[in-house]
Write a structure and sequence with these properties.
- The protein has three helices and twelve strands; from the N terminus they run αββαβββββββββαβ.
- It is of the alpha+beta class.
- The protein is elongated.
Length: about 260
């Protein structure tokens, strides 16, 4: 009876190398699958938020939820006692329609900024404050929301997206609004807040209630950055690296295309 031959060192190293290669190939697949599941949860959340807003519209003579209040103590998603406090969903304009604080939390988003941010409590989603939850006008008229009949194409007008904002140190914090590329009232550029965190895609809810994932199309930088030590202006590359950008190069996906307001 012959002696059994074991593996040589070279054969063991080859096996280990093959296992390592297979692991490197499989792990990204698992990561993408996990992110796809998170994106599905996120799109369910954002759709429920949009339907809650549409129920509010039906109960308020066709008026959309205000994105913010002139005293800065209310946002579309909640209220706060002072500007130093985080927003709380309970007591906010949508609370009666949702009764669930977790819906505004995207499973793929976590705050990395130590400053918390002036929109703390917003969760992971932002509202079209310039055209839907507000008016392209000066303060405080800009807090007046649109009426449903003022929006020409509900199915092609952005209501909500995944959002975040970048502090001066390159960290992310919560942000309540999905900014269009430009502020129509002043003709100035806006810094991007739409967050393409789902494998390069962002979830978007439109004013008719449907939702879908969309890619980044455009990004620019104004050089502004809130919070931080160095106050170093952000470049376009900083926003791209943070997966922040815009859905289009102009405001066409955001604007009402009919405004009966006084913009003075």
């Amino acid at each position: 009876m012959g002696r059994r031959r074991g593996f040589t060192l070279i054969e063991l190293l080859v096996v280990i190398a093959i296992i390592g290669i297979l692991t490197m190939m499989v792990f990204p697949v698992f990561a993408r699958a996990r992110e796809s599941a998170r994106r599905a949860t996120c799109i369910s959340n954002i759709k429920q938020l949009s339907l809650a807003i549409l129920m509010y519209v039906a109960d308020n003579d066709g008026g959309f939820v205000p994105a913010q209040s002139p005293d800065n103590l209310m946002r579309w998603h909640g209220v706060r006692a002072s500007t130093d406090d985080p927003f709380q969903s309970e007591g906010g304009p949508l609370w009666d329609y949702l009764k669930n604080d977790q819906i505004k939390s995207c499973p793929s988003f976590s705050v990395t900024s130590e400053y918390g941010g002036f929109e703390q409590g917003a969760g992971g989603y932002g509202y079209n404050a310039q055209y839907v939850g507000g008016t392209p006008a000066s303060w405080p008229q800009m807090c007046v929301p649109a009426k449903e009949f003022e929006i020409n194409n509900l199915a092609e007008t952005v209501m909500l997206t995944d959002t975040a904002f970048l502090d001066c140190d390159g960290n992310l914090f919560e942000y309540s609004f999905c900014e269009a590329p430009y502020y129509a009232r002043w003709g100035a550029e806006a810094d991007p807040s739409t967050h393409f965190r789902h494998n390069g895609m962002t979830n978007v809810a439109f004013c008719d209630g449907h939702a879908r994932a969309m890619p980044m199309v455009y990004v620019h930088s104004t050089g502004f950055c809130p919070y931080g030590e160095g106050l170093t202006p952000h470049a376009e590359e900083d926003y791209r690296d943070a997966h922040l950008g815009f859905l289009c190069q102009d405001n066409s996906l955001y604007e009402r295309r009919l405004c009966l307001c006084d913009a003075d």
